[in-house]
Amino acid sequence: MSDFRHLDVDQYDDETLSAEELAPQDPRSAQELNQLAQAKQSDVRARISSGDTAGALHAALADPPTGAHALQARQTTLALVMDILNSTRTTDIMPALKALNMDERDTLMKYLYRGMEMGRLPSAPAPINCAVILSWHEKLTQVAGTGCIMRVMTDRRIV
């Protein structure tokens, strides 16, 4: 009798959208996305070491890899963003956030949520400090408003 709870009723609906229709995959190959993520690393690390947080965020958030086939590129980019977040002083967060445009703020919010998700896993690919992520989340919400959260929650593309 309990099998009815595990029945996929969407299989009987002809108008159901698939995951690919809701969020199309990145047309680039996984290898190409990995190469792009690796190329971003040196630029972002140079900007972090020079204290250019806003520039590092611009570089890391530009053209993020999406889709299930780009797992390695997504993890590399997440590690880059977490490096930026962890190395930024609290006083430099607001100016860096104000320098971002709306799309970059939305992408950063996606990475914050992704970081929170990965922070609870013992085998996280990057060092995740949830206290830092929550601090950035608070300040990003102040700058971008709650609309940023709504756009991220309704966007099906995962970073």
TrEMBL record:
Entry keyword Cytoplasm? yes
Q: One Pfam annotation, family name?
A: P16-Arc
Query: What is the annotated localization of this protein?
Result: Cytoplasm, Cytoskeleton
Instruction: Supply the SUPFAM superfamilies for this chain.
Output: Arp2/3 complex 16 kDa subunit ARPC5
According to the lineage, what is the superkingdom?
Eukaryota
Which family would the database say this protein is a member of? Answer: Belongs to the ARPC5 family.
One GO process term, biological-process aspect? regulation of actin filament polymerization
Q: What is the protein's name according to its record?
A: Actin-related protein 2/3 complex subunit 5
GO cellular component entries: Arp2/3 protein complex
Q: Which UniProt keywords apply?
A: Cytoplasm, Cytoskeleton
